[in-house]
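Good morning C.,

I know you're traveling, so I'll keep this short. The sequence:
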Amino acid sequence: MAPEPGAIEPEPPEAPGADGHDPARRRFFRSFGRQAFDTAAQVVGITGAVSKATTQVAVNVAGILADPDGTAERLSAEPDEPEAAAAPAGASGPPVSHRSPYRLAGDTLHLLDQRSLPGRLEEQVCRRGSDVAFYARVGAVAGGALLGQLAAYGLALTAREVVPRSHPARLAEWGRVLRTLRGMRSESRMLEVALARMDALHASYGPDADPDRIARDLRAEADRIAMESQLDHATIARTIAARLPCPDERPLGVLVHGAPGTSTAGMVGGALNALALVAQEGRPMQVWLTEGGPALPGPRLAAWELGNHGIEPVIVPDAAVGSLLDTQPVDIVLLGAERISVDGEVANVVGSRVVAELAAAARRGPVPVWVAAPAEAIDPATAETPIVVGELRPAREILTYRTGWKPDRPAAYIPVLDIVPADRVALVVTEIGVTEPGPGTLAPVLAARLARRPAPPAPWQPAPGEPEPAGEPEREPAAEPGAPA
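The tokens, ready to paste straight into the viewer:
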């Protein structure tokens, strides 16, 4: 029987390589990336594609996502990796190779710790939603699209964990974890959307609903959120790759700020994977990567990802971006986005505003700025209220991590995001298409995206005359992983 369109046929397992990494797992990720691009380019209705692909393509294949009916387990029977695959202290060697920022093994979520990359592959284990929030707050994972997927799975794990409890106790724990996840990155629109979807589904069940069924349905919804994100980013990558210019006498010049790839978006990233597609086509290209702030996402994450595709980027200190744009042939600046206004104003990793302003004022001529993000990053509330950002990172990220200096009373100003004005953005690239910013121009893009998804379920309401179930006080939260006892 011929496979469904877009389905990925698993390859036979191989013995682990000399470096301890499974070559079959590596091949799966490469195959998934290529086929996801092709599949997304042909998808007309994403809801139908997701309903098929969730169990046939990305759900627990090679141990990444969950699979309620066991389809993926039968397709790819790989042993679980250890909870942490860290190199011994003081170990040296080439950067590790890995293609997924998270995976699920049963009711355990394994996160690839971004703090240890690229020199060491280390995973952190989450068994409930509050674990996910903890690791986001300490910087182990970052990126709105990725956090949305992780938060959805965190809530699904919470629903499974509380199955034995009473209905009031389940409601209390759900509310506590939901608030914790909302607080881990309040300025990410994609996180906000994922939590709203999970909460709407949870609210549609009454007190007599089977908690096992609730947990299964929430896990399936988390799978849908993850798969939709992969297809969205695959489409974005294809769109960018097709529109990038082709200079006649020199390589294409691209400047990337931040790390808009798989590390921060999931199994398929947008802007960086567009460059991977260009490289696969054999087109000459010169990529420059900024440092991107105290955590150095450019040299640590973006360069590592591009290196896995055979691309050798050049790292540029943030302070040298103006000089680069003045003297080097840069054709395009690529940015991601955590939130986008309906007019095209963009909130992205700090430093994006400076890069965009320098691109507009470059002595060689203005360099267009393209923003790559799923349409769900567009915030409809910005039709009335502008984007506001203000979240700060801990002082230690620059005073200790970057300098080794440990003052008695450290002080530093480290914003997470800043805002790029709409008039500094040439194009916004989403899975819906390419849009030039302007008054209200992004609102139809969001509407088109939402039209592809079924309406959210109606919240449960008691029958007329039936009292609502009584609640119970919330328990004190359990200690977070890694926190002192």
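Safe travels,
E.
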